[in-house]
Amino acid sequence: MGCNCIYVATTWLLLTNIVLAIIVGSEANKKVPALIVFGDSTVDSGNNNQLRTVLKSNFRPYGRDFEGGNPTGRFCNGRLPSDFIAEAFGIKNTIPAYSDPDYSIQDFETGVSFASAGTGYDNATAAILNVIPIWKELENYKEYQANLRAYVGVEKANEIIGEALYQISLGTNDFLENYYIFPIRRSHFTVSQYQDFLLSIAENFVKELYELGGRKIFIAGLVPMGCLPLERTINIFGHHVCKEEYNNVALGFNTKLDRLISKLNKKLPLLKAVSANAYDIVNDIITRPSAYGYEVVEKACCSTGRIEMSYLCSDKNPFTCSDPNKYMFWDSFHPTEKTYRIVSNYLIPKLLATFR
């Protein structure tokens, strides 16, 4: 007897949302007073708006389904994983960008994003599109700490810093914008060596966060990056299917990341770090899209959905879809809000169980 996959998936999502709503209402979640975010476009809520870079999204149709239809600089039609995670912990519904002039330390006290679309662990990745390198994100965080201490006092600021949840989401751009496009890194590293190079940077970054008082950290692994619409489009000789070479690189990176996190937890006595590996859930959506209510996974909602992102993504384009909930991807590189919600709901129970 066949399974009604759409019904099962819909029921699962409904039950997950109900459980999360109950958990969010619990006072136990108040143990996490803030969400501090580092990373790339998966968690950039508008920091690139202030940069001289072509990688921006502070215009329509980005933000079409965000609060008030406002294009904030999120590379999505709506909210990001960091927004959903902050909501699940009972902190707030959206995480503001550190460089957004409409916000101040009063807003940042309960959470802030230092992320920059297009960046990576590798400084050379950030340089490609003139975005914020990871070391500068950390410098901005140090500035934030000083401002927080001035605003709420040293004792309370140190409490917030020590109890806050830290999110790190990086890596995809290092491979797809850098390693596989430009020859410099390939001439110095094999893929495995480049994975190790990136993870050595991740290790140092976590150690620096730890020295600055961070204790609760989760690090996002890589998703099946060979299945992004842009990668399918340029995979001409592979008949536009997923590029499995890239997916295997992501899997290998995630395995090494898990080992690194285990090592860091043993080495740093007060650290509580976990991986937020979304590979399986994203791959399942790609493999069984109808089970999640999707009609299209091989191309995106915006414009033709094959190569467009940033300024090429236009709501004037007659091909831009009317219902992004039928699409897994919003532009050729970034998921829709619906996808981010499903992925976040997959990760949140583990995060709540670990950090409450």
Could you walk me through the main structural features you see in this protein, from its secondary elements to its overall organization?
The protein is an alpha/beta fold and 356 residues long. The chain is 45% helix and 6% strand. It contains 13 helices and 5 strands. The chain has helices at residues 5-24, 81-88, 105-108, 123-128, 134-152, 154-163, 172-179, 183-188, 191-211, 229-234, 244-267, 279-287, 337-355, and strands spanning 35-39, 111-113, 165-169, 216-220, 272-276. The chain has a 5-stranded parallel beta sheet, sandwiched between helices. Helix 5 crosses helix 6 (154-163) and helix 9 runs parallel beside helix 11 (244-267). The longest helix has 24 residues, at 244-267. The radius of gyration is 19 Å and the shape is globular. It starts with a helix and ends with a helix. The relative contact order is 0.14.
Query: Span between N and C termini?
Result: 41 Å
The count of strands amounts to 5
Instruction: Give the helix tally.
Output: 13
- Global geometry: globular
Query: Which strands sit side by side, in order, in the main sheet?
Result: 2-1-3-4-5
Helical percentage: 40-55%
Q: DSSP strand (E) fraction?
A: 5-15%
The description of the largest β-sheet is: 5 strands, parallel
Order of helices and strands: HEHHEHHHEHHHEHHEHH
What is the average per-residue confidence, as pLDDT, rounded to a whole number?
93
- Low-confidence region ranges: 1-12, 21-29
Q: Mind telling me the C-alpha Rg?
A: 19 Å
Give me the secondary-structure category.
alpha/beta
